[in-house]
Structure prediction request, 278 residues.
Amino acid sequence: MNFRENIIINNTQDFNIIHILQCGQIFRYTQLSPNEFLVYSKDKCCKVVQNDTNAIIYCNDYDYFYNYFDLGTDYTAIKKALMDKPLINEAVNFGYGVRILRQDPWEMLISFIISANNHIPRIKKIIQAICASLGQNMGDYYAFPTAQAMAKMTESFYKDLGAGYRADYLQCTAKMVADGFDLNEIYSLNSDQASKKLQTLKGVGAKVADCILLFGYHKQDVFPVDTWIKQVFAEKINSQCDKTTEIRKNLIQIYGDLSGYAQQYIFYYKREKDKHFG
DNA sequence: GGCCAGGGTAGAA
DNA sequence: TTCTACCATGGC
Prediction:
C-alpha cells in the first residue's frame, strides 16, 4: 500500500495503538507484525507503527486521521481528572494509551447492531464480509458500504453472511437511513434526545445507542453497559443490583462528563485481565 | 459439548 | 413503564 503522508506522535504515554484497537471500539483493523497495524475507516486506510519512543501514522489524508485518532485532545489531562475517582486507577495505568477514536456514525450504527449478544471475533468477521461484498473495491481493501448499497440487499443476504437474527435489523435500518433518516441531526441533540432518536432504528437499544454516541459522535456523557461492565460493577461496587439502567445511572453519577473515557479504560482492563489471568 | 458474547424485540403484566 | 421469553451463530 502506498502512503504519501505521515503523522508522528512523540507522546507514547497517551498513544498506544494496541490499547486503542483492542478496547472494543473498532472492528476493522489487521495486525501486520507485533507493532504494525492497518486501520480502516469509511473508505480510508492507514498504517500505524508503534515504537517505544513514538508512533507513526502513515496515510493519504492527514486531516482525517489527525481527527480520527483524536490527536487534538489532551489525554494526560483526562487521565489526571479521572484518577481521583473510584475503580479507575489500575485500569488507567494498564491501558494508559487508550484514545477514543472519532469514527463514522453510519459505520458505528451497523457495527454495533451486529455487536448485540455477539463475540468480538465474530463481529469482525461479519463486518468484513459485509465490506467485501458491498463495499467499494479500493484495490488493497474494501470500503465500508453505503446505506444505499446495504438497503438494496434482502434479509436472507445478511443471514448468509452469518448475521443470524440481526439480519432483519440490518436490512430495516439500512433502508431507513437510505430513505432519509438523518444521522447528522444527532450531532445537534443532547445525549438523551440522541439516544431516543437512535433507538427508533431497528436493532438499536440503549446499549448500542450509547456505543454509537460515544464512538461515532464522541459524546462522552454516556456509559455503555455490557456484560463485562456488569461483572465489574457486581465485583467492585454493588453485587445486589443487576439492572442495566440502574448500573448505568450509578456509573454516570460517578464519572460525569468523563463517563465515556472511564468506560473504555475499565472495559479494556477487565477484558485483558480475564484473557490473561482467567 | 455446553456456555456465553460490547443486547434487542415483541408481547405480557 | 418494567419484566420475560426468545432469538442465530460460532469462538472458546
Residues 24-25, 112-113, 115-120, 122-123, 165-166, 169, 199, 202-208, 210-211, 224-229, 244, 267, 271 of chain A lie near DNA strand B (CB under 10 Å from a C1'). The mean pLDDT of chain A is 97. The two ends of chain A are 39 Å apart (CA to CA).
